[in-house]
Write a structure and sequence with these properties.
This protein is an alpha/beta fold. It is built from nine helices and 13 strands.
């Protein structure tokens, strides 16, 4: 998984990052919400770990930004400084998927991260190497996609792009991220190629509102695929993300 770790304490951040990396995950550490928001437009994260700040013990500010201006369904785990009920309730009510209290136990911490990502993806049914989403069925082993039981004809790149979008529903995936993951590094200039493949996916996979899907182009950022059964966002265009975020900095 690609994990965003929001932690203003450098020592705590190092411990949490080490635990996650030792389990094979990629981790990007941020000290403030605004730093995370800026990176959000360039990188797709599978999970956010949000620690407390001196101004915000429940990490509520970070969750509000993720669920609000960023309109993201990415799972969030809050790591709280103390086991105070009001802080836990504030974090959960703001949109956190789970909470832990420092000091965290590394093995439990990693296990909870995996459990949360499984639990918060209800629109995808995965059985070994098989995915099912509404009328779509994906055979990952044989690289095949079916719609209503009928095998679809897709190029290798179109298949890769489809799987990337289907396994990141509710998340804004930037153009640079999509191009790098599907076409490789150094292909950021091929935006027209990406748009062409997206257009084909809309048609072939039936990613339209009448089928419960919304494949949204976010101006100057990228694409976001939502399925109506699980979408929390209103579907309005995402705008002014950075301007709507709030910064909670650490004090020494």
């Amino acid at each position: 998984m690609n994990i965003a770790l929001l932690e203003c304490d450098a020592n705590e951040a190092q411990l949490l990052e080490q635990a996650l990396r030792s389990a094979g995950h990629t981790v990007k550490v941020f000290a403030t919400e605004i730093a995370l928001t800026r990176e959000w437009t360039r990188v797709a994260f599978d999970l956010v770990i949000a620690g407390p700040t001196d101004q915000d013990a429940s990490s509520r500010a970070a969750i509000v930004v993720i669920r609000g201006p960023l309109k993201s369904l990415v799972p969030v785990i809050c790591v709280l400084r103390k086991n105070i009920e009001s802080d836990i309730v504030a974090a959960l009510n703001a949109g956190a998927d789970d909470c832990m209290v420092k000091p965290v136990r590394p093995l439990e911490f990693v296990a909870r991260a995996l459990a949360v990502t499984r639990r918060t993806a209800p629109s995808v049914v995965s059985v070994d190497e098989h995915l099912e989403m509404a009328a779509l069925s994906v055979d990952l082993r044989n690289r095949l996609i079916f719609r209503d039981g009928k095998r679809l004809t897709l190029t290798p790149k179109t298949y890769d792009l489809a799987v990337l979008l289907l396994t990141h529903t509710g998340q804004l995936l930037t153009r640079s991220y999509l191009l790098e993951r599907v076409w490789g590094r150094g292909r950021s200039s091929q935006t027209r190629t990406l748009d062409t493949h997206i257009s084909r996916l809309r048609s072939v996979l039936g990613l339209a509102p009448e089928n419960g899907w919304k494949l949204q182009s976010v101006y100057q950022h990228g694409y976001r695929l939502d399925y109506a059964a699980t979408a929390r966002a209103s579907g309005r265009a995402i705008s002014a993300m950075q301007g709507a975020s709030m910064e909670a900095s650490c004090t020494a």
